[in-house]
Amino acid sequence: MADPITEGVSLSFVRDLVRGDMLDYIRNCDGAKAILWDPLLKGPFNLVIDWVMLKQHGVKKMFDLQGSIPEEIIKNKWRNVIILIRPDLSMINLVNKSIRSLPASKRDNIDFYIIFVSRKLTMCMKELEKCKILGEFKGIYELELDLIPFDHDVLSLEYPLAFRETCVEMDDSCLFQVARSIMTIQSYYGVIPNVIGFGHSALKVNQMMARMRKEISGQEKPLTPKFENLVLVDRRVDLMSPMCVQLTFEGLIDEFFGIKNNVSTFPGREFLSEEERAQAGTDIKSKQVLLTSKDSVFNVVRDYNFNAVPPFLGKRAKQINAAYDERKTAKSLDQLKTFVSKLPHMQAEKKSLEIFTAVAALVKKKVDTKGFLKNLEVEQLLREGQDVDKLNEEIEEMIYKKAPLVTILRLLCIQSISGDGIKPKLLEFYKKEICNSYGFHHLVTFHRLQKAGLLVMQDKYPKKSFSILRTTLNLCVDQVDERDPNDIAYVHSGYAPLSVRLVNWITQRSGLKYLADMEKHLHGPTFQDFQQQPAGNQLQDRLESSENHTLVYYIGGCTFAEISALRFIAQRHPNNATFTIATTKLINGTSLLETLIEPSSRDTIPDFLN
């Protein structure tokens, strides 16, 4: 596999925009400052602004918002307390408790500010008024934190409930944020001329964008558009891809260990030498690893199928050792000078190689387990519609053994999507057995899965939509070369994500006209719209450019495997296309289902809210 192409539209403005707005608010507060964070906002903000920058602007310390004002703020007489929260009533309740934890006499010595991220809702203002604390705030602001840059080509809205709200609760509130985030992009990169959409949510976002443009008619800057295409993908159009286990290196890290805000946490023992392990004993802390394209090793292997990772790491290790050996053959001062100049890069790469070799070893331990390999086999056969009766017995045995519920539900969803539903008697059997084994509160779970289209009852005469798409778009590919692939199906070792096939199809064939025969088998409407350019804009400059940039926006979540597949087709695209990926949330099958699974009264908070 070739090294990834990183050239595309620079996303630095997104980070600069949010950073600038936040620093403006902080500068308005004279004197020492403390920040109280909504815990769910800390991770995303770390990708935008760092502690050193906040410290330079007078921030003394940051605390989690927990229902009281930290004693350290009172003791040090820090004048300004800035509270950053989501527009959520539970957060308003914590703010109320925090402020009321101080006697009125002490509150007079503190100036409180509240910043709502990303919107200041009327219901929150009314709740502050109802709690009789509205007058305590010297300033109430709104900070638009829409799309957060996770990498050079990835943006996320970090809205974990988007799929549940749009597909189950029929609440389109998040679509406003999607539309607004696209408008923000267009204000800096120009109005994207060609809009292609798949699904109901995509159509609604396009309609919202049209209304927003109408409201600011005459105010848009006449910029030559950087993006040629905007592709809006409603997650419900492709439910199969997130349910399938991701088999890229980054995808498997996410499946086994989770990736939050570009950081994954691993058992620390694997990163220590034998001597270090002996000295540490049982007191070994976990190891956090940053996963971004800035790391030269990870930038290459992140999109590889995992089977291609160990050979690459071994080869790169030999190359680094050979580079170190150059010092032995260096005889002249010039040769030594050349070696010394390369030394910092070699040391950094060696350290990175050690880290990701350890990560690969941890992933391999998980991949080589009998349970994982068996589940993968069942998944692949269900996806292809083979040996379904035999596979039902496998799933039944998993239920009796009380395997993780989310693992079972992923397989059932794959079976349902592949077969346009599950036969009524069989589906009722699964519901009964799962409720008996895992609790009857999961009747709510099944209701949500049904509304989302993930687990439905098969009609008497099924349409076989997925079967037709599977054949027409060649979604299931035999004999995939995982080490040197020539098809995006390598990301799932034989399955090509439907969403990426669609994007590849329309960008190579300039639109939807070649998809006419398949549109009736896709969930929801498909459309193509051409946005009128602002007065004075020279669209001809864009048409004459050799650049071919496409913004792909997933509404409801996007997986790392889909991102890898889009990067793969960019490397081989006949029109030299590059893709920037935006999404409401970076997901996998587990995190998506966790938003739908009903917790029991004794369950902890779902992982997606941690």
Protein model, in words:
By secondary structure, this protein is of the alpha/beta class. Strand 6 and strand 7 form a beta hairpin. The chain has 27 helices and 14 strands. The mean pLDDT is 89. A seven-stranded mixed β-sheet has the order 6-7-14-13-9-8-12, with helices on both faces. A five-stranded parallel β-sheet has the order 2-1-3-4-5, sandwiched between helices. It is globular and about 75 Å long.
Rg of Cα set? 26 Å
Structural class: alpha/beta
Question: Count of DSSP helices?
Answer: 27
Question: What is the topology, as strand order, of the major beta sheet?
Answer: 6-7-14-13-9-8-12
* Rounded average pLDDT: 89
Number of E-state strands = 14
**The biggest beta sheet, please?**
7 strands, mixed
Low-pLDDT regions: none
Mass-distribution shape: globular
Tell me the fraction of residues in β-strands, as a range. Answer: 5-15%
Distance between the termini: 36 Å
> What is the share of helical residues?
40-55%
